[in-house]
User: Fold these one by one.
Assistant:
Number 1:
Amino acid sequence: MNLPMIKKAQSLKLLFLITILSVLSGCVKRDDIPPRATEESADVVYAWYKFIARIQLRVDPQPVA
């Protein structure tokens, strides 16, 4: 009479196994990732801050820091 409990336990084990296998399959070392640059230009950062400053100047009321 415990047949539903056996099926439930087996399905939970199968779900656990599938989850573990899917997580482990994602753990692959990738060799095609480019190396990090040692020095980069900060022009993008300065342009972004200038853009945000232009937008914030027109905001009413001014944000309080």
Number 2:
Amino acid sequence: MGRTAVLSLIVVLLTPPAFGAGYSLLNAGIDYFNQGRYSDAITWLDKAIASGDLVPDQMHVAYLDRGLAHARQRELASAISDYTAALALRPNDQFAMRERARAYLSIGQDEKAIPDLAAAKSKKSDSFRSQFAIGLAAWRLGQYIEAGSVFSQLTRQVSSAWFWMQLSNVKSGTPLAQLDDKQINPQIWPNPIKLYYAGKMDEQSVLKAAQENTFAPAGNVCEANFYMGQWRLAHGDMSAGIPLLERAARICSNGSTEKFMTQIEMRKLAEVKQ
């Protein structure tokens, strides 16, 4: 998001007229954002928006960056409001669409996220990211057949899409995609998880492979715990699945799909217990 704010600053510098009071306030807000001082960024972006002398492109930037700052502080309702204002000024801004969708997903309003994700998908060449997010939203809504169909189209672009496809197939009762394990090199990550899903490798062997892989072993261990935990849960094995997800919740990095989805699954499990 820091890069986004920097790009926004460039847009502001190139957007005439550039010398009203709001312009200076806007740049101050962007500068605070880039420093990670999100509360200060919101304060100065508030002033820039209230100044009344920003041109439409500058207003778009102000709303978008204030939305990002609110999102960084987990003030998601305010973030959604700002993204909506930014989109009113620039309806085809796929970045704002994706960020609003992310905020909707974070507060459990998946049904509102899907139209934004679908619209963003149609705008640019990076549509597979939006399509993957649509698959995750469908999964969260319990639309497992739709989710499996989406993920099946992404297995070449997103390595984890194959796992989500198989998980969706289990949940929907759809036959699993076949895996030719003779063509799978267990030394290449995340193939050990594929072999686990195919019943060709046990959990301890997968975790050992994750730790021994020299490329991003911490991320590999996170993925191993998460996807094996999800596999167990999809098959109704709560006693084995929950500890794996709890471990994933502790070790997966903030911002990763696995961390985000672990938090969602753990909330679901807590609601079931209540």
Number 3:
Amino acid sequence: MTAVLTGTMVVWGAHTLLWYRRTSIDRRRRAVSGAGAEMAVADEAGERSLEAGGSTPMDAALRGGGPHVWRFNLTFRVIHALIIATFFVLVVTGLPLRFSCTVWAPGLMRLLGGATRAGIAHRAAGLMVFGYFALYAAYVTWRGWKDPKAIRGWLGPDSIILKPQDARDALAMVKWFFGKGPQPRFGRYSYMEKFDYFAELWGVGAIGFTGLMLWQPEFFALVFPGILFNVAIIVHSYEAMIATAFIFTIHFFNVHLRPDKFPLDAVMFTGRATVDYMEEEHPRLAETLRHNVTVAPPSRRAVVDAPAPPPPRWMNVAGAWGGMILLGIGLVLIGLILWGSLC
């Protein structure tokens, strides 16, 4: 488990640093050349907004000012919000146990109301994880039953399932990092997003099942030998550490801290993005989206890929404040983890 934790962070940490380096180099080159025609989509979008009397949006998904398209429907956004809420509760209530040797652990446990209340909150959040996982499974099943084409779509180019093309995109990305080729053109989901998706599924299974074993040892002892409970403690602890470290560093960088996205990307909160944003992030899909906005009016119903109205101001404000607060809390928790790793 130590090897898995170290390997995950080394590989994706290197990926993150190389991405940051390449993006920073490109931005410096554009700044030195001052070439308006060679400006990246994000910079062009910002300039157009300023020329129109507006300002560069904090939310990267709004750059360019429009037109907008629906990226995620309401079901995905609700499940994502539940993932955020339960993840933070699980991390905050689990860290004092994982790093009980630190000076901050007792204080955090007292702030949570003591070990008993923290344990109740931890288990309640765990049950919510199983709940939204069941909700998602039911939704996917319902979609497949209602529209058999949706099942065939799982194997198509827009699928979230990993395919050989993702390996080719990852290799092309590494070549781009070192200036040996162009940046790959992603479809609906990039290989990073697919990795996030399957890491979540794996985490629900590995962390969730071992958590159930530790919560109800008498029941599981009717089936499993005692040594597996020692294994469950290790797996539960280390898998939780892998998830926490990955989300608060690699995922935060991909979504918020990249130079071309800083300070945040709120597309999962508002459910919509501009076509300019999609052309930069998912160019293989953008041509279809640009056609859609020319043949259909904006839909207030969140239909994926359909034209969308701009998000209301309250949603932009809530997404910005919520995203920045969660980002700040996550960075504080990473600091506590690094501190605890030294004891």
